[in-house]
Design brief:
Layout: H1 2-13, H2 21-28, E1 33-35, E2 47-54, E3 57-64, H3 70-75, H4 83-98, E4 103-109, H5 116-120, H6 123-134, E5 141-150, H7 151-155, E6 162-166, E7 170-172, H8 176-184, H9 190-197, H10 201-206, E8 212-214, H11 220-238, H12 242-254
Parallel strand pairs: 3-4, 4-5, 5-6, 5-7, 6-8
Antiparallel strand pairs: 1-2, 2-3
Helix pairs in contact: 1-9, 4-6, 8-9
Length: 256
């Protein structure tokens, strides 16, 4: 039974219906206006970044994108952002902070792109910078893990005041297949690895790593359920003193 639950989580996290982040962004934020480029080198299709409103409140939206068709998936490296993607995300988030606009990040990525060119362009340094800068942004930040959230590539967009997960999503240091390959030289033992890794969102909640586990149904009916929860949380964030917010954010990550 435990294996069945683990398989449901793994399959659900990687479901094709979660790969089209553009659709989800528009469902949640119909007036979303996308920004492009990192102002250093180029753009990255794996990162969606821009501004929108939700019930009259301005919001900055950052999302990872795996893509739908093969051509788009190749352009996004199957949802693995390049350094310019992380730089773009940080540029837009810092702009939001200057205007006192809260930030919502939506994550579905196996991790940062591991190619040689990405490393040459400072992938590790960019991830470290994003983590450091996000912890200091003087606006509320909410992260929602929709599917996969792999390693530093996800953490670079998830240094938030609260992190939520869908019940069939994963937040891991590496993929179960990667774990199995390292431990037993056999990626087919991914389910066994996933059990050892405790990929269950409810377990992560008990450890204080995430604050809320959401039923998959929040994505139904044009994601109205998720939209309502985001709106409610942003309103609560507005009532918190910024100094207290930052202190709690720092304390949240120090305990890890």
């Amino acid at each position: 039974m435990a294996s069945d639950k683990i398989l449901a989580i793994m399959d659900g996290a990687r479901s094709d219906h979660k790969s089209n982040m553009h659709r989800l962004v528009i469902q949640l934020f119909p007036d979303f206006f996308e920004m492009h480029g990192d102002r250093t080198s180029s753009d990255d299709a794996a990162i969606i970044a821009g501004f929108a409103t939700i019930k009259g409140m301005s919001v900055c939206v950052i999302a990872t994108n795996k893509g739908q068709e093969l051509k788009e998936r190749m352009a996004t490296n199957f949802g693995s952002p390049l350094p310019q993607g992380y730089r773009k995300a940080l540029r837009v988030m810092k702009t939001a902070a200057k205007m006192s606009i809260p930030i919502v990040t939506l994550i579905n990525t196996p991790g940062a792109y591991p190619g040689a060119e990405a490393e040459k362009n400072g992938q590790g340094q960019v991830i470290a910078t994003n983590i450091s800068e996000m912890l200091q942004l003087k606006v509320p930040i909410l992260t929602i893990i929709i599917g996969e959230a792999g390693s530093g590539g996800a953490l670079a967009l998830a240094c938030s005041d609260e992190v939520w997960m869908l019940e069939h999503s994963m937040y891991t240091v590496l993929s179960p297949e990667g774990f199995a390959s390292i431990m037993w030289k056999d990626a087919k033992l991914a389910t066994k690895a996933a059990e050892i890794m405790h990929i269950e969102p409810e377990w992560l909640k008990k450890q204080g790593i995430v604050e809320l586990v959401l039923p998959e149904q929040v994505l139904e009916n044009q994601a109205e359920g998720l939209k309502e929860l985001i709106e409610q949380k942003l309103k609560k964030f507005q009532k918190i003193n910024l100094t207290d917010l930052l202190d709690k954010r720092h304390a949240r990550y120090r305990k890890f």
